[in-house]
Amino acid sequence: MRRLLFILPAALFVAVAVYFHLALNPDRDPQLLPSALIDKPAPAFQLAGLDGAPGLALDAFKGQVVLINFFASWCVPCRDEHPVLMGLEKQIGVPLYGIAYKDKPADTEHFLKELGDPYRAIGVDQSGRTAIDFGVYGVPETYVIDKEGRIRKRFVGPLSESDIARELLPLVRQLQHS
Amino acid sequence: MTKILALLLLILLAPAALAVEPSERLADPVLEARARALSEQLRCLVCQNETIDESDAPLAHDLRVLLRQRIAAGDSDSQAVKFITDRYGDFVLLKPPVEPATYVLWFGPIAVLALAAGGALLYLHRRQVAAPAPPLSAAERRQLERLMKEGEG
Known about the structure:
The complex is a heterodimer.
Chain A: H1 2-23, E1 46-47, E2 56-57, E3 66-71, H2 76-86, H3 88-92, E4 96-101, H4 105-115, E5 122-125, H5 129-134, E6 141-145, E7 151-156, H6 161-176
Parallel strand pairs in A: 3-4, 4-5
Antiparallel strand pairs in A: 1-2, 3-6, 6-7
Chain B: H1 2-13, H2 29-39, H3 58-72, H4 77-88, H5 103-129, H6 138-152
Helix pairs in contact in B: 2-3, 3-4
């Protein structure tokens, strides 16, 4: 018993050291939040499209794995992410849809004309209400929706090649075969 | 000089700027007061150490308006807050709920304090009950006297 008491400070030190090692990991961004909606049904939405284009509704995705990317022409990180999105559909074989967050349709169109349009279809969420239903707190955010319409994963910030290789691709493969 | 002082005083006395814009306020003062109280408990997700009541971020504005819509539509306080936490999780609550995942957060400091207090009591108790020193032997007394004399000389 006494001997155990002597080990206690060392054990406490190890516990604290492990905690700090994990908490101070430079790859971990403490401001990133887990989504509250993981494994829950994606919120239904019905959004108008850009000028002349058809809009976007959640019901249309039933039975397939899809990606939904929230973006805006005024969002600088979205510009960084854009080249990655351009090749994404081909790379992972899953349709990519866009939701333009609090953006004027004319600006969105200009943005896509300038950089290219990686999306199957785009919904215009000028009020930002659909984004709030998804729990979006900063564009860009990308959601993976499974065949049953549940949110399975959220990426906050620009998708990187390593996000795709390490997390997105394995998840999408698994969801497609389930 | 007095002008500068007056200016400084004004700046110091100015109430903290509030982000709630007049256009956002509800006409009914009772509902508005409820909305204010709730929005002071909700974290802004963009600037994560501010409440949505203080924050100028557009998302904070949207959430303030949404909160007021829910309250105007007849939601209770807890329903209105649940509407937000359903979307953004418990992270938006500046006062986290007491649940198994947050026990360490809520009770950890008390546990550490109790542990320290226990240790201190044990230590003090042991010190007190330590047996009184035995009286000096004849040889020790002689040595002491010699030492005392050396000190005087």
